[in-house]
Amino acid sequence: MTLFVKKFMTEQYRHHVLMVCVLVWVLSQVSVAFAGEPSVQKDAGFGLGTDVRSIERDPNQETYSPLTERSFPDFSPKGLIVGKLTVLPSLGVSSVYSDNLFATSTGEEDDLAIVISPAVSIRTLKDRHFFGVTLESEIVRYVDHTDEDKINLNANSGGYFEIKHDLLMPWTVSYSKNHQDRANNLSRVFTKDPLEISTVAFEGGVSYKPNRVGLKLLGRHVRKYFEDGTSLLDPTMEVIRSDANFNTNEIELETGYEFTANHVAFLRGVLGKTSYDKGIYDDGAAVFTTRFRDSKNTSVLVGVVTNYKGLISSDIGIGYAHVDFENATLSDVENIAIDATIDWNITKLSTLGLDVTRSILQDNEIIQGIVQTQGTLSLDHELRRKLILSASGTYINRDFEGISREDDLYRLGLGFLYRPSPYYNVRGEYIYSTQDSTFVGNEFSRNLLMLRLTGHY
Fold it and tell me: Could you tell me the CATH number of the domain that includes residue 309?
């Protein structure tokens, strides 16, 4: 007994016992949360390749990636080796303060939320057939506005089958149950409880690259559900959101040509169809109409993916997007499509990033399409190996088709990441948001403060 107590008190053994307990707790929470739920849109993010860059600039390859993507053994989770699997459990505890919880221009209300975030990631060790799965839960509890309490769930799995060296079959499966941020409610008709949105997604296909020329064919299915509720201002009034439940089926074809090392030109086309379960809901008559928003969706992007000597990495695509509504009373929407990401390592310790997108969206209460243009400029600097400072600025423009409405959202953020140990890190963030709109009552300003402690193994 004495020997057992001494062994338990050793630091290494305590870490193993602690993380095993966390893993068991996470799995039990996720299994309870998924009981009775349909068994996804969150990218699984499982690496199907590595970022290969030239080694001419500096022999230290850790400086080749953007700062936030670098991994250092001294600060990386060790994980538990179980057979041919690596298990990476984590548990985060956050406090989040908002001075304008409902993102309104009048009657602003503030509150503090405590967020518990258990998660576990399981991945195969090096193998011809890669597989990974991640389970995450987010339990949010408010001090005053307890109606805003919620539990978010995300589960995603992905990988590939290696038929032969140059022929892969990638796939992903995901499920999410999240809640809409009050600031993202474009209709400004708030439900008493946060709007629940569930998504199931499947994707799979073939990737073939025998030489400089590559070809990829993917099939994709997305199913999204919206929860109905009651009005925040009048609990006797129903707020119907389920008329936005839809299925989307898409085929994506991409061809690429590596014209020089680490420089690939690509052409990508997507053809899909979106079908809604119900017609548009008429609030006045309290019925679902026979007016559906079913559409055919087309997009084409041409661009280039580059990695230049560890200095600049980019993925830039420009093209055309079109939404063709089957109902003649709805106007089709078309616009220039943009999907561009650029990371520039301006020094070994600083990365400047730029993300620009333009796409066509649809919202639950906005019948016509929305052309959204978004740009984010970010700067990450490694002040010390253990401390990273970050700053970012985002601009979002939403142009509503068929109506005279336009929204402009501006967001500024400051943050830090302190990682003194492979077993935990501390992250802090401040975000200021302000929105201007031609739609009366849609303007707001908001300050958010977040502090998170994350333990992992």
Answer: 2.40.160
Structure tokens at 235: 């609990």
| 268 φ, ψ (degrees, to nearest 5) | -130, 130
Output the CA angle 7-9-14, nearest 5 degrees.
95
Closest CA to 197 of 172, 219, 229: 229
Q: Any residues with CB less than 8 A from the CB of 423 and at least 6 apart, and which?
A: 15, 77, 455, 456, 457
What band does 57 get if pLDDT is binned at 50, 70 and 90?
very low
The whole-number pLDDT of residue 367 equals 67
In whole angstroms, what separates CA 378 from the centre of its chain?
Answer: 17
> How many domains does the chain contain in total?
1
Q: At what angle do helices 2-9 and 11-34 cross, to 10 degrees?
A: 80
Average confidence score pLDDT of the chain? 84
What pTM was computed for the model? 0.80
**What's the domain range around 182?**
2-456
